[in-house]
Amino acid sequence: MGDILAEDKKKLDSLLKGGSSGIEPLVFEQSYDIEYVMSHGQDSPFFVGLAFGKLLGTRCKACHYSYATPKSFCVNCGGRCSWVEVPGSGKIHTFTLCHFGSEAFLKETPYLLILVEFEGFNTLFLSRLKGVDPATAGLKLIGTKVEAKFNPALKDKLDFMRKRKIDYKRTESLSPEEKELIKKMEIKVSDLWFEPA
Amino acid sequence: MGNRALGRPVYFISGGVSQFTKARQDLTFGAMVKESTDQMVEDLNLPCGKFIEILRKKNGGTKASYFSDHYTRQLMAGIMAQDIQGFCPLSSNRVEGGGATGGICFQEAVKDVASGYLDLCVAFGFETMSHVRTWKGNEFIALASDTDFDYPVGGFYSGYYAMMVTRHMYEFGTTVEQMAMVSVKNHRNAFFNPYAQKREKLTIDDVRKSEMVAWPLTRRDICVMSDGAASCLVVSEEGIEEILKAGGNIGGTVKIIGIGRGTDMMRMADRPHGEVVLLPWEKEDHYRDLKYPGVHSFRAGRVAAREAYGMAGITDPLEEIDFIELHDAYTSSEIQTYEDLGLCKYGDGGRFVESGASFLKNIDYGFPLTRPGKLPVNPSGGLIACGHPVGATGLMQAVFSLWQIQGTIKKHFGTDDLQIPEAKTGLWHSHAGTGTYVTVTIGEKV
Questions:
Q1: β-pair partners for B90
Q2: Best to test chain A binding among B270, B271, B330, B434 (most A CBs inside 10 Å)
Q3: Burial class (CB in 10 A: 0-12, 13-18, 19+), A24
Q4: Is B272 near chain A, with CB under 8 Å?
Q5: What per-residue confidence (pLDDT) applies to B363?
Q6: What are the residue ranges of helices labelled H in B58-192?
Q7: Nearest to B396 by CA among B223, B264, B262, B161
Q8: How far is B62 from B37, CA to CA, in rounded Å?
Q9: What angle do CA B194, B362, B337 make, to 5 degrees?
Q10: Among A188, A146, A197, A165, which Cα is nearest to A38's?
Q11: Nearest chain B Cα distance for residue A99, angstroms
Q12: CB B25 to CB A27 under 8 A?
């Protein structure tokens, strides 16, 4: 027993000779999973709007600057904005074809990303372009007319909401059951995309 | 806009850079920083104990520059880097601003000295991007875009910059070959920089035929993930005196003559279509039909340049500046940045690179250039070839700029191929995601 310990000590001493330089860096792996509880906060009406098949933007009450991606407060004058409907169709302002992406989106490649411009709106909207063969993508896509498409999976829930004539711009008017339902719909901005008009 | 000023003169006298590489598994992040500060102190010919003594005696302090807590998987990494270097209990704080973290950190050090709060400030920075695999790393960086509206549709940074340059191509006729020229230039320059991660001799064809990431950007249009650290020492006149009194030796002093910083909205979709922010020598009718900044230009870069030029009194950068180290995370953004910095008009960036103005005169890039070396850009190799360990990057650019102005490139690189003869005034530029934060700093030989 004593001999083995002495043998180990000798090994360790020889490894430490001249500082720790005799030891290879120890590399290890570990994971880090987190479930976040997030809120869309003041932007929530935009996501509720998607369930109704509507694209909602905002307009500043003071200076009338308009946002195709909603902002509750005006970036020009700091004023409050009100909700307005964005037209269901617009034009491609710019695009890219992604052959790679963040790890979570690698399985969806190749995909097309576009910024859409809308008549009467000062800012743009980032979205996916579907219904176009990626192999044909080129500068000529810029200026192409596109229209909004909404995830059909939202449709059943959507009909339920419509039957009750819910005012989607005023989430505080919803009943607790309706609020619960909207939460369960897990509406994401990716439930909306564009296709050539 | 009135011209801004620093409260008192500020000098940049020493710097250090750790080897930028894909993975530094031999050192933890704090020890990597120590590697760069040791070099910074050795350049002053001081033992590190003596240097720490000066910091403690003479209003010394530090700034820690790192971008992502996700990569380190260690909160409060700044204080760990501080203590491993023997800098406790000196004043310090962390600085963070995406890709511009290092540039902002340098300027915060300048301001602390200019205000009289500190006489010596060490700005140190690092990033350990090797801790996750490449596409998870891309995901972390993508989290530095709007996670409610942009990330969930598959948005990531190469995609954002690709959309920006696609519009640049549409508006101005910029070509993918012009972008590839930037990649050839920066990789070829880095060939002579031993600190660089990618030292390659490429052709335009190599760049275009390399794997497509997000059209029109290929892998060789885009910088890589790195591990690395860098440190800069910024001081007052009293700080210089103290170092000399202690027996230190300064290899060349650079006075900070201009700093500027601008910002823009996180979402590219929100960038307005307004009027061009003009530099003093530009006229409105240069840009009659240009909607600005749109997604093709970086308004933050233009605002930062205007401030820094104003403070430095620069009215003709092509004549008054000898070299530029700028944030080329993408070849496209180098071209766009030429325009923001007023090296050419908005829209002329592609033609500017084609003229050869931003290349080094004495290096063979494999194709003819009409006007080589007018104003070399990224003589070090830039981010594309040196690597981009985010928190270290802006400081690395500052250190390479210091060595250019000191005339110590040969001492540090072992060869003087990249030394710009008689470089007197240099500009270094740092830039965060899609141009959200941009800093411009100008230094002049004393």
A1: none
A2: B270
A3: exposed
A4: yes
A5: 96
A6: 69-72, 77-84, 101-114, 134-142, 157-172, 176-190
A7: B223
A8: 11
A9: 75
A10: A188
A11: 5
A12: yes
CA distance B321 to B426: 6
Which of B153, B162, B269 lies closest to A190 in CB terms? B153
B258-270 pLDDT, tens digit per residue, is 999 999 999 999 9
C-beta atoms surrounding B303 within 10 Å: 20
| CB-based contact B152 A137, cutoff 8 Å | no
Q: Compute the residue count for chain A.
A: 197
- Residues B351 and B344: their CA atoms lie apart, in Å, by 9
B120 touches chain A (CB under 8 A): no
- Identity of the residue in B156, B158, B295 whose CB atom sits nearest the CB atom of A94: B295
pLDDT tens digits, B302-311:
999 999 999 9
What letter does residue A153 receive in the DSSP assignment? G
Global model pTM greater than 0.80: yes
* CB-based contact, B149 to chain A, within 8 Å: yes
For residue B417, the distance in angstroms to the closest alpha carbon of chain A comes to: 35
Q: Tell me if A93 and B295 make a contact (CB, 8 A cut-off).
A: yes
In this predicted structure, what is the pLDDT of residue A171? Answer: 61
Percentages (nearest 5) of helix, strand, coil residues in chain B? 40, 20, 40
Cβ–Cβ < 8 Å for B178, B165: no
pLDDT tens digits for B365-418?
A: 999 998 899 999 999 999 999 999 999 999 999 999 999 999 999 999 999 999
Q: Is B75 at the interface with chain A, CB within 8 A?
A: no
ipTM at complex level: 0.94
Secondary structure of residue B336 in the 3-state scheme? helix
Side-chain half-sphere CA neighbours of B418 within 13 A: 35
Instruction: Give me the residues paired with residue B97 across strands.
Output: B99
